[in-house]
């Protein structure tokens, strides 16, 4: 569905309206006259209108903007129509409403409802500027290409840029090709041609050059462009980004004032020379490179007086504020979340707090630009459902997670980790509902393993549970904000903790895999080595274990058992580098430590029941036999912390096993 | 104009009407739901004695674990068989 050219509803607002009607299903649109309507209020029919909430609010907004824009231009036919209505005795408000109805009528006439697959048309607007896979993932892809034969290293799925005729292509190297990646790639491949159609821009076959005056290299190649225009076998179209009179003396210069063509062509450097065949790109070169320009144009002796090559300059589309504006303009309409407009008088930080979106600390306002940038951290589609979030059991999309990740202060490359953490938290085994509602203090503790921890710079060392690292601080917080804002789990409401714990702001850290004497937690829990993963554990406070004397694993294990024996529920034991060395030197594997701890912690029933005049203890029916401390693998072992200090730590858990929470490990996918 | 995106579920909770409070428990079927906390049964045993003495019919139910919401089948069963339910939290 798209607008025919010349539907005259506004100067330059067609694209705005197209953007707004994009989410409208054609069938529904045809049935409901595209949605927006004003209905008459009953009390005083001439003067009042009551908002009909059945209409499409986004479209209504777009029509309003279109009408207001027309009014700004004194000689536009919208303004003339408005003046006529006022002359007929209508108030300005009524006249504006008439203009909007007129715009809507024209829109209705000019919309074609196609029977072709709807995906193609909305796909116009689902284009990603670049499949900006997070940096860590690119690095990981490089790593894979070097060691592709290694088992476990082929699990990455890379979507990479290619300037073939199909636009984007997906290189999906391995067995983990998931269906939504394929479809995403297909949509990207489709999108270029379709986008040109919807914009009414058909790139002419031949050569297309994108230039700007404010670029010395562009100025240098002016004679070459003149050569191409006069001697070339194919037509040349020059798009100029900043000055309609540049380059001088060449026919076929088009002023790309709003940078639409530059954006559609994904130009990041000027000059860019592109060859178009049958409406699709077949080759391009950036900057000035005589060999490449001659290859593309088929001409010889281009720019005889010029140096053989010269680098280009940044395209205007890459200027920070421009890039942001273009991103919002073209991709913003894909975001489905409600827009909340802040008043000029509101302080935006206070506004976030006033709306109840904060955990008590300041949050980053989730503007469209920030959310779009966040979504670039993953290849997953914004409308993909990640999980069903307790306590209100709300399906959460990638987009909603991204919004909360912005609030939390995450960088885009953290998003895949946040998504994995949300996924893990919302499983039945992890039981986030119970963990939230319990009167006990615990909350979700996120342990991150694998290459992602290096790429996003997580802390696994000094002050590992403390402040100072952005990824550690914000990933755990983003998870908590998803549960708060999407799931509806708020302190004092469903969250009934007697004490709570500071870890409920954020409790997230990486395991120190490089320094560890043992296999990482994710590997112990069944994932291949070098796979990025999160493990969620229901944990509360941290208590230190001081043992500065033990030099044998046997002695140190007894210290650990003493500390763990005092923890009521499950636990995570975090071994520090200084203590880890004792186990490495003693040749103890992780399994050995587990076995010894189980032996040391098992106790006969009577020792666990009403001892020392304390009423608390295990129930009578468990009898007198020797009981294990962790019958359902309720002890997690991690390795992290600063390199000096003969301490380890216990993170106290919560009710373990099927009756409470079972730790969950999920792979982090791009 | 500054616009931000709504981070919430954008849902308004469905309002559910609470049934009118019975004026008397005589002849009613009362469900006693033990959420599986320690000593919940002690509390409910005592309640059952009292209710039976007042002419109520009592049915006992138990949640599999106090850490999770009651399974939907259990909630449905209670709704079908009982006029009133008392849920016991204990420790």
How would you describe this structure to a colleague?
The complex is a heterodimer of chains A (670) and B (91). Helix content of chain A is 36%, strand content 17%. Chain A is of the alpha+beta class and 670 residues long. Chain A has 5 domains: 2-115, no CATH class; 123-199, no CATH class; 206-318, Glutaredoxin; 365-539 and 660-670, no CATH class; 541-652, hypothetical protein PF0899 fold. Chain A has a 5-stranded mixed beta sheet with strand order 9-8-7-11-12, covered by helices on one side. In chain A, strands 20-19-21-28 form a 4-stranded mixed beta sheet. The two termini of chain A are 32 Å apart. Chain B is α/β, with parallel strands linked by helices. Chain B has a domain at 29-88. Chain B is built from 2 helices and 4 strands; from the N terminus they run E-E-H-E-H-E.
Query: What profile does the largest beta sheet of chain B have?
Result: 3 strands, parallel
Distance between the termini of chain B: 54 Å
Q: How many DSSP H or I helices of chain B?
A: 2
Report Rg of chain B. 18 Å
Mean pLDDT of chain B: 88
Q: In percent, how helical is the residue content of chain B?
A: 25-40%
Tell me the strand order in the biggest sheet of chain B. 3-2-4
Read across the widest sheet of chain A, the strand sequence of neighbours is 9-8-7-11-12
What is the mean pLDDT of chain A?
80
Hey, roughly how much beta strand do the residues of chain A contain?
Answer: 15-25%
User: Helical amount among residues of chain A, as a percent range?
Assistant: 25-40%
Principal-axis shape of chain A equals elongated
Task: List the helices and strands of chain B in order.
Answer: EEHEHE
Helices and strands of chain B: which structural class? alpha/beta
Structural class of chain A: alpha+beta
Distance between the termini of chain A: 32 Å
Q: State which percent range the strand residues of chain B make up.
A: 15-25%
Q: How many beta-strand elements of chain B?
A: 4
């Amino acid at each position: 569905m798209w607008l025919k050219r010349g539907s005259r509803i506004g100067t330059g607002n067609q694209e705005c309206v197209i953007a707004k009607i994009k989410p409208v299903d054609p069938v529904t649109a045809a049935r409901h006259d595209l949605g927006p309507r004003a209905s008459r209020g009953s009390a005083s029919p001439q003067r009042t209108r009551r908002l009909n909430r059945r209409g499409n609010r986004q479209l209504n907004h777009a029509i309003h903007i279109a009408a207001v824009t027309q009014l700004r231009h004194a000689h536009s036919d919208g303004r003339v129509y408005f003046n006529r209505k006022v002359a007929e005795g209508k108030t300005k408000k009524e006249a504006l409403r008439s203009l909007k109805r007129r715009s809507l009528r024209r829109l209705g006439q000019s919309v074609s409802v196609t029977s072709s697959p709807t995906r193609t048309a909305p796909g116009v607007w689902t284009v990603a500027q670049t499949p900006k896979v997070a940096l860590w993932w690119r690095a990981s892809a490089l790593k894979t290409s070097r060691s592709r034969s290694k088992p476990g290293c082929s699990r990455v799925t890379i979507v990479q840029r290619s300037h073939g005729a199909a636009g984007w292509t997906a290189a999906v190297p391995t067995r983990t090709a998931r269906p939504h990646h394929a479809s995403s790639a297909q949509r990207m491949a489709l999108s270029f041609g379709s986008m040109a159609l919807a914009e009414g821009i058909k790139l002419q076959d031949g050569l297309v050059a994108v230039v700007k005056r404010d670029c010395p290299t562009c100025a240098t190649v002016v004679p070459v462009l003149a050569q191409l225009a006069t001697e070339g076998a194919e037509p040349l179209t020059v798009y100029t980004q900043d000055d309609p009179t540049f380059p001088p003396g060449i026919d076929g210069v088009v002023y790309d004032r709003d940078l639409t063509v530059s954006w559609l062509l994904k130009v990041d450097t000027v000059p860019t020379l592109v060859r178009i065949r049958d409406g699709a790109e077949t080759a391009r070169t950036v900057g000035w490179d005589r060999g490449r320009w001659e290859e593309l144009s088929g001409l010889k002796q281009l720019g005889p007086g010029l140096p053989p090559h010269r680098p280009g300059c940044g395209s205007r589309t890459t200027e920070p504020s421009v890039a942001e504006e273009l991103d919002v303009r073209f991709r913003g309409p894909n975001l489905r979340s409600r827009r909340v407009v802040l008043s000029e008088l509101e302080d935006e930080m206070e506004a976030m707090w006033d709306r109840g979106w904060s955990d008590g600390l300041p949050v980053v306002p989730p503007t469209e630009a920030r959310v779009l940038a966040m979504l670039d951290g993953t290849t997953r589609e914004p409308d993909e459902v990640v999980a069903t979030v307790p306590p209100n059991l709300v399906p959460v999309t990638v987009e909603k997670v991204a919004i909360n990740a912005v609030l939390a202060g995450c960088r885009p490359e953290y998003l895949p980790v946040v998504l994995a953490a949300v996924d893990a938290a919302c499983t039945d085994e992890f039981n986030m509902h119970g963990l939230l509602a319990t009167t006990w203090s615990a909350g979700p503790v996120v342990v991150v393993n694998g290459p992602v921890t290096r790429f996003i710079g997580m802390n696994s060392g000094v002050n590992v549970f403390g402040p100072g690292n952005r990824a550690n601080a914000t990933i755990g917080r983003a998870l908590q904000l998803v549960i708060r804002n999407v799931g509806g789990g708020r302190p004092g409401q469903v969250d009934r903790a007697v004490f709570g714990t500071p870890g409920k702001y954020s409790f997230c850290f990486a395991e120190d895999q490089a320094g560890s004497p043992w296999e990482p937690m994710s590997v112990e829990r069944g994932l291949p080595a070098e796979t990025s993963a999160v493990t969620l554990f229901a944990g509360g406070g941290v208590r230190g274990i001081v043992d500065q004397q033990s030099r044998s694993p046997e002695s140190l294990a007894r210290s650990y058992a003493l500390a763990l024996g005092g923890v009521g529920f499950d636990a995570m034991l975090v071994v520090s580098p200084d203590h880890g060395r004792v186990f490495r030197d003693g040749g103890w594997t992780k399994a050995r430590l587990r076995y010894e701890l189980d032996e040391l912690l098992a106790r006969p029933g009577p020792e666990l029941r009403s001892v020392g005049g304390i009423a608390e203890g295990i129930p009578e029916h468990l009898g007198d036999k020797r009981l294990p401390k962790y019958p359902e693998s309720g002890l997690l072992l991690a390795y992290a912390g600063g390199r000096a200090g003969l301490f380890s730590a216990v993170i106290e858990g919560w009710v373990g096993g099927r009756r409470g929470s079972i730790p969950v490990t999920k792979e982090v996918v791009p | 104009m500054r616009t931000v995106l709504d981070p919430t579920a954008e849902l308004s909770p469905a309002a559910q009407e609470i049934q009118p409070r019975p004026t008397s428990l005589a002849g009613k079927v009362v469900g006693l739901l033990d959420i599986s906390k320690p000593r919940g049964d002690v509390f409910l045993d005592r309640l059952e004695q009292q209710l039976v003495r007042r002419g109520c019919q009592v049915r006992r139910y138990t949640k599999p674990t106090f850490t999770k919401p009651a399974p939907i089948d259990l909630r449905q069963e209670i709704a079908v068989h009982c006029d009133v339910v008392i849920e016991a939290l204990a420790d």
